[in-house]
């Protein structure tokens, strides 16, 4: 037996880091020890501008006192309450608050703890809904290439990122994928929504013809694909998906884990792009990243279809120990207050044109082959080095970090999504650092 009792406290080996090159990281660790507003502080005392809102979640900036106070007070009053067959007032208050701000008729909310859980929950609700209506043959899901829907078996199966799939076998069966919408020849350097690509939604008709509508439960897409490198939906694309789903009785799920809570310049992507889903997942910005929490919103039609049978019967055999956790509910309510009082979603919309102009000034920088943007999001795509996809992106990530700027790097794509409290001078700074670093790289 290896002796693990005498490991030094700062031994880096025990922690198996997620989505991280563990050996590379542990050879040269990067540690944050505090965070406030737009900035992290590193172990060495350096400030780093957070260009990606934690991980697309800290939309109101770090260390918001209103949110931490709410968490503290709730921890004092009631740390935990079981969510099965019992309730607590904040859960109901939060659900009502959300349904009031959600677009259209998304009038019911189911709580979970992560984006991945929200996705699996949404997929299961879709299956249960069809079954409750006597259409139990509808078990197939249609995702999209380059989609990211978390790391549960359901989310990985409907997702379309090869590295996230190849280690894990076949996952959920009966899944098919739409083509992604990324096309550099047609759409490179588009500002906002690209003009070309709406017809890619018609591929759904082809899949319906192949599998038959009676086997398809739902289509799941991110309104804007974030994790795969900021793919903004072409004009008219989501609208066409909506129409085809409606025509064939297929549910449309928007995974708004990234696009929710102001990121695109409206409360939700559904609003920004003017298309109404039947189910919507949310997470990240829901609590400003302060406590893990996610949610799935559904229409009356879906909820009512499942509120059937004897009233004493559990309608949906699904839920989590920490569904609607009191600390998460307190954090979410305080977060929604901050968003509202500071009008942060409007602020995002107001800053978006400045952001767009600023990031597109990088179009002349070395090796930049595309820049895309929407709201306070940008994706900057660098040409890959021969035989070394991702190496240039990683070098850029590291050098920017050394110069005090953090963003998210996916292969050779740099994804930026700063907190919605960002100042114009900080936007200029981000672009300055990026421009310098990109031009220095071979
Ligand atoms: C669109 C989308 N769905 C789901 C997830 C998974 O969320 P989590 O990491 O909280 O499980 C993410 C995370 O980035 C996401 O961007």
CATH class of the largest domain: Alpha Beta
For the record, the count of structural domains works out to 2
Radius of gyration: 22 Å
Mean pLDDT over all positions: 96
Percent helix range: 25-40%
Short synopsis of the structure:
The chain has 16 helices and 15 strands. The protein is α/β, with parallel strands linked by helices and 442 residues long. It folds into 2 domains: 140 residues, Aspartate Aminotransferase, domain 1 (Alpha-Beta Complex), CATH 3.90.1150; 275 residues, 3-Layer(aba) Sandwich (Aspartate Aminotransferase, domain 2), CATH 3.40.640.
Please describe what this structure looks like.
This protein is α/β, with parallel strands linked by helices. The chain folds into 2 domains: 22-63 and 343-440, Alpha-Beta Complex (Aspartate Aminotransferase, domain 1), CATH 3.90.1150.10; 67-341, 3-Layer(aba) Sandwich (Aspartate Aminotransferase, domain 2), CATH 3.40.640.10. The chain contains 16 helices and 15 strands. It has helices at 22-27, 53-56, 65-77, 89-101, 115-132, 153-158, 162-165, 184-187, 203-211, 237-247, 269-273, 300-306, 326-341, 344-360, 391-402, 424-440, and strands at 32-36, 39-42, 47-50, 106-112, 140-144, 175-178, 216-221, 251-255, 279-282, 294-299, 368-374, 377-382, 405-406, 408-410, 413-416. The chain has a 7-stranded mixed sheet, sandwiched between helices. Strands 1-2-3-13 form a 4-stranded mixed sheet. Strand 14 (408-410) and strand 15 (413-416) form a beta hairpin. Helix 3 (65-77) packs antiparallel against helix 13 and helix 4 packs parallel to helix 13. The longest helix is centred in the first third of the chain and has 18 residues, at 115-132. It starts with 21 loop residues before the first helix and ends with a helix. The model has no long low-confidence stretch (mean pLDDT 96). The structure holds pyridoxal-5'-phosphate. Residues 114-116, 119, 148-150, 222, 226-227, 255, 257-258, 283 line the site of pyridoxal-5'-phosphate. The site of pyridoxal-5'-phosphate has 14 residues, from helix 5.
């Amino acid at each position: 037996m290896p002796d693990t009792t005498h490991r030094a406290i700062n031994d880096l080996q025990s922690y198996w880091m997620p989505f991280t090159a563990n050996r590379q990281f542990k050879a040269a660790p990067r540690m944050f020890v505090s965070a406030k507003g737009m900035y992290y502080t590193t172990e060495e005392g350096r400030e780093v501008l957070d260009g990606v809102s934690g991980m697309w979640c800290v939309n109101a900036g770090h260390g918001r006192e209103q949110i931490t106070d709410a968490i503290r007070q709730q921890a004092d009053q009631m740390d935990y309450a079981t969510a099965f067959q019992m309730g607590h007032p904040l859960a109901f208050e939060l659900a009502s608050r959300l349904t009031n701000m959600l677009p259209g008729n998304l009038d019911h909310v189911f709580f979970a703890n992560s984006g991945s859980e929200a996705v699996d929950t949404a997929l299961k609700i879709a299956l249960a809904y069809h079954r409750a209506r006597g259409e139990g043959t509808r078990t197939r899901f249609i995702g999209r290439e380059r989609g990211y829907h978390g790391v549960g078996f359901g989310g990985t199966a409907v997702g379309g990122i090869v590295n996230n799939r190849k280690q894990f076998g076949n996952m959920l069966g009966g899944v098919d994928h739409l083509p992604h919408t990324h096309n550099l020849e047609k759409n490179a350097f588009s500002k906002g929504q690209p003009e070309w690509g709406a017809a890619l939604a018609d591929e759904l008709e082809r899949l319906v013809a192949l599998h038959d509508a009676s086997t398809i439960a739902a289509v799941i897409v991110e309104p804007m694909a974030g994790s795969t490198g900021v793919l903004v939906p072409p004009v008219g694309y989501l609208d066409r998906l909506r129409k085809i789903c409606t025509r064939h009785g297929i549910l449309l799920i928007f995974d708004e884990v990234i696009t929710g809570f102001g990121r695109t310049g409206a409360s939700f992507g559904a609003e920004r792009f003017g298309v109404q889903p039947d189910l919507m997942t949310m997470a990240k910005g829901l609590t400003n990243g302060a406590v893990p929490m996610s949610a799935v919103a559904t229409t009356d039609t879906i909820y009512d279809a499942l509120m059937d049978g004897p009233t004493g019967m559990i309608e949906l055999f699904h839920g989590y120990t920490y569904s609607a956790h009191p600390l998460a509910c307190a954090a979410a309510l305080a977060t929604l207050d901050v968003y509202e009082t500071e009008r942060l979603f409007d602020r995002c919309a107001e800053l978006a044109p400045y952001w767009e102009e600023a990031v597109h000034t990088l179009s002349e920088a070395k090796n930049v082959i595309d820049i895309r943007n929407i709201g306070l999001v940008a994706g900057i795509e660098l040409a890959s080095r021969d035989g070394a996809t991702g190496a240039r992106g990683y070098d850029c990530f590291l050098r920017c970090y050394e110069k005090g700027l953090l963003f998210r790097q996916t292969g050779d794509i740099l994804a930026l999504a700063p907190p919605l409290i960002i100042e114009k001078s900080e936007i200029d700074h981000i672009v300055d650092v990026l421009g310098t670093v990109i031009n220095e790289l071979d």
